[in-house]
Amino acid sequence: MNVIDSITNSTQTAFTFEILPPLKGNSIQKVYNVIDKLREFEPKYINITSHHSEYIYKPQPDGSLRKVNIRKRPGSVAIAAAIQNKYGIPAVPHIICKGFTKEETEYALIDLNFLGVHNLLLLSGDIKTLEVEQQPELYHAHATDLQGQVNQFNMGVLLDGSPIEGIDTPFSYGMACYPEKHEEAPNMESDLHYAKMKVMNGASYLVTQMFFDNTKYYDFVSRCRAEGIQVPIIPGIKPIVFRNQLTVLPRVFRSDIPEPLEKELRKCKTDEEAKEVGVEWSIMQCKDLMAHEVPSLHFYTMMASDSVRRIASAIY
């Protein structure tokens, strides 16, 4: 089943969450431990983040530096298949533009189709740790370009135009949206333009970047509806767990911290106190969103799985 169908057919606000693959060399048991904490809340799907390779410079005996390409985490294809096989919960791997060639993306789609993973989240990907590509024509510049490749694959056509058989279940996918504007967008109108384009070209739902002020989400949804965007817009929730996130999250993710939350976090002397504030704020935030009948709540669990479990226990 397409995950969006399970969400829209749910009789109550659905629960979904995102996990980070373990560092290369670590056991997948770390992933299972997070899922085991949260599976009792009947998640409709589990997102798996994807990470491009990075370059590091290793010192050599002669004092020079050698550039080495490394991939720090295992691929989301294998982890998605493992999760879906072990738990029977739909896995939704991230498919990203940055750091992956169009050909690498095609191989991933072939593998996912073969493994029976038919739900995706299409994203641009993080560019902050990515070097400028030497052959930009090999890569997609934007998520909407990546969307075109997935749509073509769904029609049974590969990059070189040759046919591919066995696409009995086309990929269903969601894409990202930004209630407080994407960092590369010149203005909110531009962001809405691309959100509408994503939906017109086949995205069945949109998932928001994290936010802490629900009014930003409600205003964004209203503007989307006014533009004719009618697909579910799923709010993304990230509990604060460290004191320094008061400044880190606005800088990295462009997410405003509401003044009441800021005041409480500034009182905190330890990360443990900040974690408590984060749980309380997220519970209040989620209850308000549920009162407004959002289709689902999507939790970003990185370094916050214990907090997410407490929040889910309080609201479900």
Number of domains: 2
| Main β-sheet, spatial strand arrangement | 1-2-5-6-7-8-9-10
Could you tell me the radius of gyration in angstroms? Answer: 20 Å
In total, how many beta strands? 10
- CATH architecture level-2 label of the largest domain: Alpha-Beta Barrel
Sheet of most strands: 8 strands, parallel, barrel
Write down the CATH topology of the largest domain.
TIM Barrel
DSSP summary: helix tally: 11
Question: What structural category arises from helix and sheet content?
Answer: alpha/beta
Run of helices and strands: HEHEEEHEHEHEHEHEHHHEH
How much of the sequence lies in strands comes to: 15-25%
Distance between the termini: 23 Å
The mean pLDDT is: 89
Q: Low-confidence spans: pLDDT under 50, at least 5 residues?
A: none
User: How much helicity do the residues have?
Assistant: 40-55%
Shape: globular
